[in-house]
Design brief:
The chain has 299 residues and is an alpha/beta fold. It has 8 helices and 12 strands. Strands 7-8-9-10-11-12 form a 6-stranded mixed beta sheet, with helices on one face. A 3-stranded mixed beta sheet has the order 1-3-2. The longest helix is centred in the first third of the chain and has 62 residues. The protein starts with 9 loop residues before the first helix and ends with a strand.
Length: 299
């Protein structure tokens, strides 16, 4: 006779397993709470280290910066200036009036200097660099003038220059001999912008193309050009879009707004014809009529 059930009895196993499951679930809950508490503690420690480091950096940043500069102080000793045009080191001096000779290189605000120099419309591009140990380097690319322009400023007329992009500027430092070699532009009134500059000359690419071909391939014609009028130059290629040039050889030479090489070639041939050459200057030469040209002699 058995007073207790055998361990092999399924009912005993069932009771034993249920008890184990209850104990295991309690252990899992305890383990999860310990893991969560550990992660939270690490997070608080990390946050404390980062926040404390930030406060410490704010406090020591200023003194550390001063200490570093005192050790590695490099005073300015020389300004190196280069330009591809006519501006000189004397011209750039007013833009550096706020800089002491012994100022530390790292205290020089190169962006402020760059911004000041760029207010000059003659400057196309400027580079300002620190050249250690003690040199400030300024490199300027100037606009290349191709034409002159008279602009009214109040009761006075001032001679301005125009570069290959149609930008109008004063042209400081450019010799009179260089200026007199350039023709004038007429037939246009330009508006002044808020920053003191003038708006670009419209359709100037066509004017420059005419002048460039004349200067490089037909020099004898180019040196006689005095005034280039764009009064009748249109934005679109239409039959009445023309460029009028006053030269020493003719009061008016009419070009259509394309095929300048062909027209200048024809003009060179006309001017070298004995009958026309002996009757210069002419009143008018019209090259805008395709393959034909109309020549009108002075009365």
């Amino acid at each position: 006779m058995w007073f207790f059930r055998k361990k092999s009895d399924p009912r005993v196993k069932q009771i034993t397993l249920q008890g184990q499951k209850k104990q295991d679930s309690k252990a899992d809950g305890t383990h999860f709470r310990k893991y969560f508490f550990k992660i939270f503690t690490y997070f608080l420690l990390l946050w404390g280290v980062l926040y404390g480091g930030k406060i410490l950096w704010i406090r020591i940043k200023g003194p550390l910066k001063i200490w570093w500069r005192n050790i590695y102080k490099q005073p300015l000793d020389h300004v190196e200036f280069k330009s591809n045009g006519f501006l000189t080191p004397q011209w750039v001096k007013p833009f550096l009036s706020d800089i002491r000779r012994d100022i530390d290189m790292m205290d020089i605000d190169i962006f402020a200097i760059k911004g000041k120099i760029e207010t000059c419309f003659q400057v196309k591009k400027v580079i300002v660099q620190r050249k250690f140990p003690a040199t400030l380097k300024i490199i300027i690319e100037e606009r290349i003038p191709v034409l002159r322009l008279l602009i009214s400023e109040g009761h006075l007329k001032r001679e301005m220059l125009i570069d290959v992009e149609g930008v109008v500027f004063y042209g400081e430092g450019i010799p009179e001999l260089e200026r007199h070699a350039m023709p004038f532009l007429s037939g246009i009134i330009l508006k002044k912008n808020k920053d003191g500059s003038y708006e670009k000359v419209p359709m100037f690419d066509k004017v420059y193309q005419l002048l460039h071909i004349a200067k490089t391939k037909y020099w004898s014609i180019y040196v006689q050009m005095e005034v280039v009028s764009i009064e009748h130059l249109k934005k679109r290629c239409v039959p009445w879009s023309k460029i009028n040039v006053r030269c020493q050889c003719a009061s008016a030479i009419i070009f259509k707004d394309s095929d300048f090489d062909e027209q200048l070639k024809r003009l060179d041939f006309i001017l070298n014809t004995p009958k026309i050459r002996d009757n210069l200057p002419l009143e008018r030469i019209d090259l805008s009529l395709g393959n034909d040209a109309v020549v009108k002699f002075q009365k």
